[in-house]
Amino acid sequence: MDKMPAWADAVLVPLISILLAALLSALVILAIGESPLDALTLMIEGALMRSSGWGYTLYYTTNFIFTGLCVAVAFHARMFNIGGEGQAMIGGLGVALVCLFIPFPHWSVALLVATLAAAVFGALWALIPAYLQAKRGSHIVITTIMFNFIAAAVLNYVLVNLLRPTGAMDPATATFPAATHLPTFQDMFATPDNPLFRGAPANVTFFLAVLACVAFWLVMWRTRLGYEIRAFGHSESAAKYAGISPVRITVVAMLMSGGLAGMMALNTTMGEAERLVLNATEGAGFIGIAVALMGRSHPVGIFLAALLFGFLYQGGAELALWTSIPRELITVIQALVILFTGALDNMVRMPLERVFLALRKGA
Amino acid sequence: MDLLTLLQVLDSTVRLATPLLLACLAGLFSERSGVFDIGLEGKMLAAAFASAAVAALTGSVWIGLLAGIGAAVFMSLIHGLASITFRGNQLISGVAINFLASGLTVLIAQDLFGQGGRTPSLIGAGRFEPITLPFAEALSGVPVLGPIYADLISGHSILVYVAFAMVPLSWWVLFRTRFGLRLRAVGDSPEAVDTAGVSVAGLRYGAVLICGLLCGLAGAYLATGLQAGFVREMTAGRGYIALAALIFAKWRPVHALWACLLFGLLQAVALRYQNIHLGGITIPVQVMDALPYILTVIILAGFVGKAIPPRAGGEPYVKER
Amino acid sequence: DPALIYDLGGKFDKSFNEAAFMGAEEYAAETGGSYKDIELQSEAQREQALRRFAEAGFNPVVTTGFSMSSPISSVAADYPDTKFVTIDGYVDPSEHPNVLSILFSEHEGSYLTGVLAALASDTGTVGFIGGMDIPLIRKFACGYAQGVLATNPDATVISNMTGTTPAAWNDPVKGTELASAQISQGADVIFAAAGGTGIGVLQAAADADILSVGVDSNQNHLHPGKVLTSMLKRVDVAVRESMAQGADLETGVMMLGLAENGVGYALDDNNADLITAEMKSAVDAAREQIIAGEVTVHDYSSDDSCPALSF
Amino acid sequence: MTQAPAIELKGISKAFGPVQANKDINVRVMPGTIHGIIGENGAGKSTLMSILYGFYKADAGEIFVAGRKTDIPNSQAAIAAGIGMVFQHFKLVQNFTVLENVILGAEDGPMLRPSLARARGVLKQLSEDYELSVDPDQLIENLSVGHQQRVEILKALYRQADILILDEPTGVLTPAEADHLFRILDGLRAQGKTIILITHKLREIMEITDTVSVMRRGGMTATVKTAETSPEQLAELMVGRKVLLQVHKTPARPGAPVLQIDDLRHTDRHGVERLRGVSLTVHAGEVLGIAGVAGNGQSELLEAIGGCVDASGSILLNGKALPLSGPGSDGAARRAAGIAHVPEDRQTEGLIMPFTAWENTVFGYHRDPACQTGPLMNNAAIKQQAQDKMTRYDVRPPNPALAARNFSGGNQQKIVLAREIERDPDVLLIGQPTRGVDIGAIEFIHKEIIRLRDAGKAILLVSVELDEIFALSDRIAVMFDGKIMGERAPESTDQTELGLLMAGVTASQAGDPIAAVDASLHQKERREARAHD
Ligand SMILES: Nc1ncnc2c1ncn2[C@@H]1O[C@H](COP(=O)(O)OP(=O)(O)OP(=O)(O)O)[C@@H](O)[C@H]1O
Ligand SMILES: Nc1ncnc2c1ncn2[C@@H]1O[C@H](COP(=O)(O)OP(=O)(O)OP(=O)(O)O)[C@@H](O)[C@H]1O
Ligand SMILES: [Mg+2]
Ligand SMILES: [Mg+2]
User: Fold this and answer.
1) D150 is a domain residue
2) Please, which chains are in contact with A (at least 3 CB pairs closer than 8 A)?
3) What's the CA gap between C5 and C27, in Å, rounded?
4) Which candidate from B181, B184, B321 shows the least CB-CB separation from D16?
5) Nearest to A142 among B86, B243, B290 (CB)
6) Which residues constitute the domain of residue D111?
7) Where in the sequence is the domain holding A164, given as residue range(s)?
8) Reported pTM
9) Same domain, D288 and D391
């Protein structure tokens, strides 16, 4: 018998953790002399009460779904990929290269090819850490951190010295040709008399992200590969016994992970900026960790957690817009959410287990 | 390269290596006890801010130093709570601490000083001044050795000497004292320590506190020794480099010294010689910038000998499932 | 009311954005009006902030930083009644008639500081320390080097960039080390165009008792008597003027160079003793020549090359 | 005589989450005696002793030491009360020296040097007094398990324990080493020390203890004087019913050789050569039993044949050579070739504990086309088959959707067996088939193995339980230090002879067997130590 029903572990624990994080965040807001309640109202109104608010929320959500899935694949294989950030940067490079240099007839073709490029570039950036982990036991956490820094240097070099249009100030590529511009929610849903999602950056990649969730579930729980990844993640010795190659699984899982991180660039680079800028990832790779943890590495959970963080980002933007709360508050809230859902989850789980045990004994 | 240039590069190396060394030794204590710590960066940052802020408010760098240590220790305690008491994931706790420090420092700084996450510039007794060692002036005329003593060894702030003194001290504590024996044991086999009647949690908290103390020194050195105030994100990834140095050093104090000096040297060289021209090829500055990270990966790949972490490292000690 | 959007560096970067903030404050003080401002947090917020402010009726919407130009291009048409100002960015006025692009001739201002640096230097070696290695910073460096070499053809200009990631804007420790390295190579005047990293450069220069040159705002007060001058980029004026004009703002492209007093060098009580009469006359002469078109300062960003410095 | 008991436990209870490991346990142990505790795996013996040693905290109950009620919240308190414990799984710091391990937690002061110096002297004295010689400067990871156990005993004695708890000390020892240990215990008893000895081997209980307590399913069923009981009675107390440990089988009718192994060698990650040229043949329709003390290469032998580790030499299956390294040498390939493998450790190898039972029923065979529909796995079919298998093998509860960790050890083993046997393999490798399995399940498993043999399969059995080896094998091979020491027919040998072989002593080495054992063991240790340098 398990100590606690599965639903409690999957729903109750993260929920209470989030509440604790929210409580502390409220205290922080109080401490800097603002009203937590007003802040929350503002956040909800700005993020959820208007279609363009949703357009931003879902834009951020798209990023976090990809990075959340990226971290989750690695988690399933018992690896901690902290390099989503760098993989997404390099994924963006792949997107930029195909968008700039291949003349596409239609955005759909462009999206298809760019997806491939993003995934391949992101995956390749994860390959060396994966290989070193598999073959040489180099701790993947450290190597992926290092690869984040190296990716930043690579991207800077490429943008400043190679891809920047002459005379441009921005360390960014030229704007992609119009044929590669992806339809935004506004393009898709707005009608002349009902201008929905005006100006919001959410675009078709959101559906790609949802598709990725479904594919993630299929691969993880319905294919041999997913079976092997999960088995390897739970027990390496057992995997060896079953003839599952640790090297292969480590490398394949990290390739998938890097590929998913790379695909985040579709949203930021092709969907939103329509050019590659230096700072396109903006820490989404790290948020992916919190998203995967809160979502218990399951696509449904990841989707919901990504939505929560999307809300936090968009709501935080509204806060910055209409109050004098510094933008660092959002960083603090993120930190608290990661801390409580990721590292201090046992603080919630242990007492809960005791409660459930007592309930069962009582019954 | 003439002696003078060499000395200057080495001098710069010493300054750049000092925060790395302190953070590296901090990580060493923590990880030797079995608690992995990728939150060195955040602790250093918190300490840098607290020391500069309090030094600015009180005008005393010493009170600032204490505050810096206090801030880093506080962060350590959060890490301890998560990874020792509540057996959480140590890596995630570290990530959270880095975020927390990055946000809180600016938030508080803004609230206190309204200078956009910066502290006011420290003046006079608010910062650590370089110390001129005895006879430095007199001896500087002596060929070779004179300049080495006067320029390289003398003329740093007190925390530099503290940092270097920490190396033999750490070694002695780890390998010559009862505390050190137990600390090493708990990182390798916590159940052996437990059954020997010593508290695993107690030892680990002890180690984590020392880690906080040393990170506090590192952060205070950045903000009040090298600089005259705090600037947001001023640690600029040094915590991660320190971590890399720790692995390179295979969790040994004296090796840590050499590893940090090496990384310091790399940075010093990269700063002095950007865009190195080798024959027809120009090595772009980005390569020099990324060199420490590339080197770390190469080291990790085992081309420079395999690094085996403490056996129980990263795993919470769970007695009852 | 007008609104102001700061670039990612944040409101209090002690230089560019802070100058914008000062301008807005001046506007508020002078006119008794009020304004709204926001510090951006992410790339996607650029457009969002523009739209939200435009929808809320703020006019004009003033923005700082070259990165705002492309979001403004995509937003401007949706709000034809709102005036947008992009400081440092360029938006084609024929496509977007409601946008004012304000550009500065940083190379010209830097040229003047180069003249002063060359004159103040005893060693004939001067330094430049940039933040992240991006074209704008190279533009500063290039103008500066031209000014130095025009004044003293035998001078040496040492130029360093702090790094290649955004961390390079906030690494005063590296700034200090770079400054020390340049000092040991003989530099006795160092120009820092490096955001928070520059704080470390100015500090190191002051500690080593040599001169430094500040950037964007007047930074002379940071170390009185130790900062030779600051390369002024009158973002504050640009912001104040734009705000003051309100909804009637004249749009188009505005090039603020020496002639318009958009860039220049700072002279105040803090550095009055450092700038001798000869220096002042020399630098003012250079200024006149540039304004008169007798001297052209090469703009790095026009062709990504620099005659006076290699990167 | 009203001497106070050295130890008295009253009403001790302990639950691990939903598992009630100890319920209301009462026991008294008189000073200067050896008190045995027996019970099946999972009966709660280790838990009880760990409570006494302060490693776990009891949920309820009281502890009296020498008649005084004593609180033992942690091991420090237990040590202070004069209790020492040698755990089933040693608690040593692997990269410390013997000396450092001995003083850990019992240092004299904040500086190490004086403590080490004193300990060196004390250790020398102790090892002379009790025949417990071990090199104080050797690293633990370079010592054999037997010597590691000595270090554990020395640790307790160094702390001046009056009461010594030994948890299954003989599981890792050869019969000769076990004899030596018992002599030491005898000596300690003579000095007035109290000893609690945990084992599930009845023979040992009868041999050395004064009194014995029996545990079953977390409870204490009885405490009796050893002299007044019999093995049969103890077994009955242990299991709760009359036990029949006899397997009924007809003589084997071996057919053609199926598995031919020649000069098989394997070196582990640390560079220790674990298999040093093993040659064996298993015929169709026979059980070849491999006897040996744990850690002499039996595990590696199964792993090498099962494809879990690389090896050199040759393995012929039905006359065809199998690749031993590189592609096609992994466990999946071996399964495809017809070798099924029941691993020694079901929890870390045979099963994925968080997976459901049905997922586990195809573990290792998940690449079989029968498990697929198109690119996906055919979960419906797998579940259906899992249900059938679980019913046939009487797995309780027969719910395929339950996670493997929620089954008891015996039922977990049945899931593994069902999976491997149902594949109808040519060869069945089976390691420790009944470790941690209750008597009822043991009977079932033994019958299955014999049924398979009679169906003409070749079976290679590894077990550390000599009784099991004798009960099932048609031939017995003994392994020591990575080599086969000899083969015997079960009818023509006995436990003594096998015991000597297990210690590396061949019949030709006449004279003092114990000395010979020591010599060969030392030789083995030196080899392993060298490999570590
Ligand atoms: N640390 C623990 N956490 C949770 N459950 C435990 C723990 N230790 C033991 N158990 C459970 O408690 C029960 C009793 O275990 P214990 O180790 O005391 O048995 P034992 O009699 O020593 O068995 P063995 O002969 O296998 O050593 C078992 O069901 C076991 O699974
Ligand atoms: N780690 C665990 N987590 C959850 N439940 C457990 C755990 N260990 C044991 N259990 C539960 O406790 C019960 C007893 O487990 P245990 O392994 O002690 O059984 P057992 O009495 O030894 O049976 P068997 O003789 O079949 O091994 C099992 O049925 C199982 O449901
Ligand atoms: Mg036990
Ligand atoms: Mg059991």
Assistant:
1) yes
2) B, C, D
3) 15
4) B321
5) B243
6) 7-239
7) 62-313
8) 0.86
9) no
